[in-house]
Amino acid sequence: MFQIEFQLAEQRLSGLASFATERPVTTKAQLRVALRDKPVMVMLHGWQDNAASFAPLLGKLAEQFHVVAIDWPGHGLSAPRAADNFYHFIDYVDDLAQLVALLDQPQVTVVGHSMGALVAVCYAAAFVDKVNGMVLIEGLAPLSEAEHDAPQRLRQGIESRQRYRDRAQQRQSRSMGAFQQALDLRCAVNDVTPEQIRPLVERAVCLRDGRWYWRHDNRLRCDSLYRMAHSQVSALVSSVQCPILSIIGESGYRQLKLQQPDDQGWQQLEQIKVAGGHHCHLQSPEQVAEHIVLFSSKFNALAR
Question: Pfam family of this protein, just one (predicted)?
């Protein structure tokens, strides 16, 4: 895999790609030759992960696709957002829209894990003509809550920001004496082995003056000021027209298991279960990659 950078209007995104190009990519012309002959797949990681979350899948998927796995802003090697921005969820959809426009393809296949899956659904609902298929790993519809919870949500989000401001200096001084500490922490949090999560952690930390620091922007931990109402999410879900493969882990989030997808408003969704938990694509990479290739072969064959 090759390191890649995309310069969007206000943001620089880093990532991994199955092809080499000039860095940073600022024009469509820089990608025109590189993206010939195979369809394009865009991979979107989850909250506080990075592009290396998909490292075990990239080799297999690159046989069929030109693959681009990005680091969201404030994650991995991507630049943080401006100082007055607290990572509104919907802004990730704008980031994705700018990226797809820069790739300049008639359509792309999108794979999203967790938060990346939620962003993918929103994008596919708004830009139905740009996505020919989606794979959602341990993630489905955007988070929603009852409208009467809005005042408490707003207060909770603002108080969360104030706590961040009050503790900013304290957080900047936090560090680890060894890489192994970072690796052990993510293993414990995500219930995976060191071998499974090492590439992700290597991209998530940096070494300064003999100490290890997390790269991700601490503002990511601030609570949202709002969430969509259930009716808004339903409108998005019912607007998605492309085929969808939902992949869930046997010990992943229970609420993601769908008994009757049609009852939830999904038009073309099939769901499968693989061994593992919320990061099942790290725990069962061969199985997940095979399912993605088989699923995508159906609509790619129709496109040809």
Answer: Abhydrolase_1
CB 153 within 8 A of CB 225: yes
Q: Is the dihedral of CA 142, 147, 153, 158 positive or negative?
A: positive
153 with 226: CB under 8 angstroms? yes
Can you read off the two tokens belonging to residue 105?
């393809």
**What one-character-per-residue DSSP string does 31-44 give?**
HHTTT-SS-EEEEE
Q: What is the CA radius of gyration of the chain?
A: 19
Query: Does residue 53 lie in a domain region?
Result: yes
The CA distance from 18 to 252, in Å, is 29
Q: What pLDDT, on the 0 to 100 scale, is given for residue 304?
A: 45
Helical ranges in the chain per DSSP H: 29-32, 55-61, 89-103, 115-126, 150-166, 168-172, 179-190, 194-204, 230-239, 280-283, 285-303
What is the domain-level CATH number for residue 63? 3.40.50.1820
Residues in the chain: 304
Residue 184 belongs to a domain:
no
Copy the structure tokens of residue 225: 């000021």
Q: pLDDT tens, 191-225?
A: 999 999 999 999 999 999 999 999 999 999 999 99
8 A C-beta contact, residue 273 and residue 292: no
The answer as to whether 62 is a domain residue is yes
What is the percent of the chain with per-residue pLDDT over 70, rounded to a whole number? 96
Global pTM exceeds 0.90? yes
Range of the domain at 8: 2-140+156-168+225-303
Domain count, the chain: 1
**150 within a domain of the structure (yes/no):** no
Cβ neighbours around 234 below 10 Å, total: 15
The DSSP code for 25 is B
Let me know: does 111 contact 124? Beta carbons within 8 Å. Answer: no
